[in-house]
Amino acid sequence: MGLSTTEEPNGSIKNYLNITGGKITQKVKAGTEGAVVRTNKMGVEVSELHFDTLSGQIVNIHIEPSPYAPKVWVVTIRDGIDFYYLHLSYSGGTTMGLLNKLPNIDFSKDVILKVFRIFNEVSKKDKDYLVVYQGGMTKGHKVETAFPKENPNGLPPMEQIKVKGSLQWDDTKQMEWLENLVMTSIVPKLGGAPAPEYASKVEKTKAESPKVADDEENDSLPF
């Protein structure tokens, strides 16, 4: 199947996916065999199945609102007759791990998305990473960025702006540029796929949900 881990869990699973704690996760009903229970940032216990990789053909990419952020990316992966909807925050490390590889992906073939977490020596925090492979999972099959630092190919750099007296890095122009690139140059190359029955739930969920910080990127599904 399109999802894999070292210990494949059994039971029925939903095809809506997030990235949490260095794993690809699916929220499931409490008591589902193989599920891991954690407390999210809202203090709510959720049950999830955890996976290491997601494989299949990228057939659609779109942006939609979530209950906790104005925009999230939804990447549709097809594996045979199954569709998986991977939700990524609008910006951030794992998101860039995919977006900056898109121009170098052959969309007629399957990809393997691998997620892992390691300690970042710069930030002194654990950090999630997303790596894209095609044709295998060796170093030679790794899809490289289309925007290396030495030749960013038009990608705007992040900017330092002052917010309440403190300098912060801002990626607004960078993300606007990438969004335009994806919608005008990448999406037309994709095979197309039905959108998940997700956006219609958002407005109702917004009215019922307390506001949380924008970085609640991994708890954005309304179930």
What does this molecule look like?
It is built from three helices and twelve strands; from the N terminus they run E-E-E-E-E-E-E-E-H-E-E-E-E-H-H. By secondary structure, the protein is mainly β. The protein has one domain (3-204). Strands 1, 2, 3, 4, 5, 6, 7, 8, 9 and 10 form a ten-stranded mixed sheet that branches. It has a two-stranded antiparallel sheet with strand order 11-12. Strand 11 and strand 12 (166-170) form a beta hairpin. The longest helix is centred in the last third of the chain and has 15 residues, at 172-186. The two termini are 23 Å apart.
Summarize the structure.
The chain has 223 residues and is mostly beta strands. It has helices spanning 93-99, 172-186, 199-208; strands spanning 3-4, 16-20, 23-28, 36-39, 45-51, 53-66, 69-79, 82-89, 111-120, 125-133, 159-163, 166-170.
